[in-house]
User: What shape does this take?
Amino acid sequence: MKDIFKAIEDVAFAIDNAIKNEDLGYSDSENSSGEDQLKLDVQSDKIIEDRFASISCVKALVSEEKEGVMSMNEGGKYTLCYDPLDGSSLVDVNLSVGSIFGIYEGELEGANIIASAYIVYGPRIELVWVEKGKMPTLYRAINGKFKEIGEIKLNEKGKLNASGGTQQHWEVKHKAFIDGLFASGYRLRYSGGMVPDLHQILLKGGGLFSYPATTDKPDGKLRQLFEVIPFALVYEGAGGQAVDANGKRLLELVPSHPHDTSPCFFGSNSEINALKDAYGINNVK
Ligand code: AHG
Ligand code: MN
Ligand code: MN
Assistant: This one.
C-alpha cells in the first residue's frame, strides 16, 4: 500500500505541472460517458497509467477516460479505479480541480474498497488518504513534498450546502429539501468540481453535498467506482454518512458496469438524517 501512496504523491506533482503548463484545449475524442475529453484529461490519465505500470501489487486499472478494465501486473491483487482529472472543464476558468482514486481488492463493488485518496489542485496541492475503518488524513504539499497535516473529522452538523444537477430537473422533494436547508441558514457552496466541493465541506466541519437523481439523469451523474465510492469511504471515515436516494450506504453499491453512476449524498450526520426524513427513507439502513 505504501507503493500506491507514493505513486499518488508523484502523480499529484506531475498532473499539477500539466494543469499549469499544458494546452487547455479539447482532444478529438470522447470518453465512455459520452463527454468530450480535454487534452488534459488524456494527459492526466496517461501520467497515472505510466506511474502505476511499475507497481506490482496493481493488477488492473479502471479510468474515467478508458473504456473497460485495463490489465496491468498479473500477480497484483488490487484494482485502481480513478478519475484522472475531476472537474476538468473548470481549468480554463482557473478554479480548483482534483483527481480521485479507489483501491479495490476482489470484485469491483463498494464492499471491496480498501483505501481511497483524492488530490486537490488549488492554490496549494492537497492530498487526502483513507484506509477502510480509519479516519482520513490530510497532507499538504510544501516545497515539493507532502507534509502530514492531521486527521479529518466532521462535526455532527455543518453550515454548507452544495447540490448538483440542474434545478429545472430536480425532483419536487429534492427542491423542497434544499430550499428548507437554505431557509434554516445553510450557505450555498458549489463550484462544479466535486473534489473541492466535498473537500470544503470536510475541512469546514460539515454540511451536505448532493448529486441527486434528476428527471434528465435518473441515475445521477457521478460515477460509482471512481467518484462516489471512494468519497463514501472518506466521509464515513470522517464520521459522516454517504448514501444513495434510497438511504442505502454508497459503500454497498454494486456497479454492473465500470462507468455506472448513482445519485449520491455525502454529509455530516445531522444533514444526512434530515435528508432521510425529507426523502421518506428514514427506516432504510
Ligand atoms: P468530470 O470533470 O470528471 O467529468 O466530473 C465533473 C463532475 C463533478 O466534479 C461535479 O460535481 C459535477 O460533475 C458537476 O456537475 P453539474 O454541473 O451537473 O452540477
Ligand atoms: Mn469526475
Ligand atoms: Mn474526470
User: Anything to note?
Assistant: The domain at 2-151 is CATH 3.30.540.10 (Fructose-1,6-Bisphosphatase; Chain A, domain 1). Helices lie at 2-21, 39-52, 172-183, 194-203, 224-237, 269-279. The pocket of AHG (ligand 1) is lined by residues 35, 64, 83, 86-89, 164-165, 192-194, 221 (CB under 6 Å). The chain has two domains: 2-151, 160-279.
